[in-house]
Each structure stands twice: as C-alpha cells, then as structure tokens.
Write a structure and sequence with these properties.
EC number: 3.4.24.-
Strand order of the largest sheet: 1-2-4-3
Main location: membrane
Active site: 143
Order of helices and strands: HHHEHEEEHHHHHHH
Number of strands: 4
InterPro entries: HtpX_protease, Pept_M48_protease_HtpX, Peptidase_M48
Number of helices: 11
Membrane topology: Multi-pass membrane protein
Radius of gyration: 22 Å
Number of domains: 1
Length: 304
Amino acid sequence: MSGTRFAPDRGLTSRMVATMFMIGLLYVVFVGALFVLLRGAWPLVAVIAGGIFIAQFWFSDKIATFSMGAREVTEQEYPELHGAVDRLCALADMPKPRVAVADSDVPNAFATGRNANNAVICATTGLLRRLEPEELEGVLAHELSHVAHKDVAVMTIAGFLGVMAGFLTRMGLQFGLWGGFGDRRDDRDDEGLALLVVIAVSAVVYAVSFLLTRLLSRYRELSADRSAALLTGRPSALASALTKVTGAMGAIPTRDLRQAEPFNAFYFAPAFSARQSAGNLLSTHPTLEQRLDQLGRISAELGR
C-alpha cells in the first residue's frame, strides 16, 4: 500500500473503484428518476440528503464510536493496547490512529475514519480479555490495514448511499407527491403511478447498493487478513484469534449479538451466534473456513 508497509492489494483497489463507479452510476439514474417524478421538490430533498451525507462522512469516526458505545482511552488506562498499536504503526510506517475501547463482552474490534489522520481503532473489553498479546496484535494489524487501504472510507460512502435512497424517496413523497398534484381524478391517477414507480426505483437502488457493498466487504476482510499476516509475519496468531473470537460468539447472549449485528460490516468478525451461518450472499464476511484456509497458505509460503 502506497505510504505504508502494508502489502498493496490491486484486487481490493480495483473492486473499490468499480463499486464506487457502479453506485455512482446507479445514483445518477436514481436522481434523474426523482427529477422527473417529483417535479419541483427534488432540489430540497437532495440538499437535505447531501447535507446529512457530508456530516456523516466528515464525522464518521465520532458517529461510529458513539453508536458502538466506545470511548477514546489514554496510554495510562490501557498501556498494553496502546503499546501494541504503537509497535504496529512503527512497523507499518503509518500515523497512529486514536485508540478506543468499547465496554462490551462481544469479542470484536473495528476501525473507522475518513482517512489515516482521522482514524480510530477500537477493541472491545471482551476481545482484550480473551486474546493473547500476539493474537491481539494480529487483530489490530487487520484493522490498521483497513485504514491504510482506505476501504473504511469507501464502505462509509457506499453504505450511506443505500440509506439515502430510502431517505430521498420518503422526503420526496412527502414534499413532492402528496402536495404536488391537484384534486382531479387524472392527477390522483398520476400520483398513484408515480408513487409505485418511485418505490420500485428506490427498492432496486437499495438492493443493488446492498449487494455491491456486501461483495466488497467480504473481499476487503480477506485482504485485511492477508495484509496483517504479511506485516506481522505471524499468520498463525491471527488464525488463532479468529478461531477464538468466532467460537466465543456462541457463548454471548443473543440480545447482545443482536445489538452488535447492525455494525457487522465494520467488525473484525460478524456478531453471529453459533447457529447462524455467515457463508451466504448477504454476509458481510467470508466464512471462517475461507479465512483460515488463506492464512494457512500464507503460513506455508512464509515457511518456504
């Protein structure tokens, strides 16, 4: 990766560019449809949605840490955690992000922020309690790789665009359709038809955005595993951490897992119970078997 010692991943870069291009193209069509269907109301809707998007992107680190119940911690509070991040940043030759801890028994970690200078890396208390130092460094290296590869910012943008489709539609219907037509029967027929078209277009936009971000999310997790293993030179430690974290999910109360599940796309491992399967089209992560198999191949390559 340019600017750091993390291994570059052209496959990840090409997928991020393709995802943003496809979503951007999709939204050009979506905004064009709103322009035709919602008449004069769409500029107000677009300005409001654009303002919310800019705010979310600019303050994505603060929004994410607040939503996940994390707080920034000092070196005096968590010296081992800060020490691990210091060592990895020195090894990767990258700026040190802010360090946070979430008081949760769900063993996990995440990174967020629009760039390396505004990034936050967070671990839960459940993760810190369960992992050995080498395993923790593997997880932290995985999260730092997301920052170095800039895929955190791409996921923030791509994920928000899907939400914006629904928001634009609701606002457009409120300000454009319900108050934009007359009382004649023909106008009511037009209103009903426009309503159906807007709902259909919004559903398609959301579905395609959802699938594109899921495909990118699974690849970026494999890329982060690979980059972390190569940086630390200890793929076995990362594999051990993955096995521990995934196994521990089965002992976490279902209520806690459900609270964490909306943030799966940003987590080191998905917050699923042992009875759930992450190996499907809608999953944010590749399966544990896929991740361990990749780490096993890297370990064999490093051994040679």
